[in-house]
Amino acid sequence: MNFKSILFALTTLVTLSLAIVLNPQITSPSADTKWRAGDTRTVTWDTENVTGGPIPEGMKGTIKLGYLDPKDGPNEHLNWDLGSGFDLNKGSFVVTLPSELETKRTYIIVLMGDSGNASPQFTITAAR
């Protein structure tokens, strides 16, 4: 094997490894979840069965709260940052929901690392 062949093989391997996208499935909240605005809750995700995984040590994540509006197509309305800079391979992060949220059944949590992964739609009720 000559130098050019080895260099090509190494470049191909590096490119393929960088193209792998990690996509951990969010396990909480689920479609049956009901939270209340202002509460502190734990968002969890699967770290064992990750498409593109395992999650490397030191990869950081971000959690956003949004909602879907049937009149607005696929727009996720990711209006609230709930946390960032946490280790994605830990599988959970405690968040505090904004207290001014309206009651909706179409809220979603989006977990971002090297891609975004949305939870099923779930309910948050307005604070009392």
Automatic annotation (TrEMBL):
Recorded hits in InterPro entries, A to Z, give:
Kre9/Knh1-like_N (IPR018466)
Q: What is this protein called?
A: Yeast cell wall synthesis Kre9/Knh1-like N-terminal domain-containing protein
Q: Which residues form the signal peptide?
A: 1-19
Residue span, Yeast cell wall synthesis Kre9/Knh1-like N-terminal domain: 28-124
Taken from the record, one Pfam family name reads Kre9_KNH
Its source organism is Absidia glauca (Pin mould)
Q: Which UniProt keywords apply?
A: Signal
Domain of life, per lineage:
Eukaryota
